[in-house]
Amino acid sequence: MKIQGFELELEGSREDAAVINEQLGRQLAGMLPPIEGIIEGKVEQVASPGQAHQDVDEKPKRKQSRKRRVASSGEAAEAPKIEYRHDSSKYGNPKQDWNVTKKVLWLLYVLKQEVGRDEFSAGELAGVFNLYFKQFGTIRASNVSRDLGSAKKKSPSPVADDPTKNPVTWYLTDAGNKNAQALVEEALGSDELKL
Known about the structure:
single chain, mainly alpha, Arc Repressor Mutant, subunit A, 2 domains, 3 strands, about 45% helix
């Protein structure tokens, strides 16, 4: 087999380049027999020129985009199992401009006083806050875990966690109780109706 000159001129747009390249490769492969067949003397036709030419009309298949998977931490902010009646005259209301850490410290304190439990998961905290205090800005369970984790690194730490529980639960330390009481005082001072 001997090929002596090969000249190719193509017209098309950049979008067609990948398709043209693929189809040209198929056509050339269809014209050449497999190398093993040439060596052993057995020549089989891979594809007839007509078959290779028919494939050119096919539209290119688009690669499906991968969907981003978000790892679940088991702390989905579902409807909370904690129910209580909020008394704004005792604890005030959270401020909208508080960051997630302040909102959660305040909420941990309020829940500890009203529900009688000390420890709550990030999902429970986000669920309760979003159910009762949505107008003060919603929070996400993942942000609760992230921000309480950052607060835990401070000295003295306002919060601690219990990693032996699934999901991890958070509770106020002595320093956290003092911070939360200051937040309650701040919330009570701003709850007066100003017209």
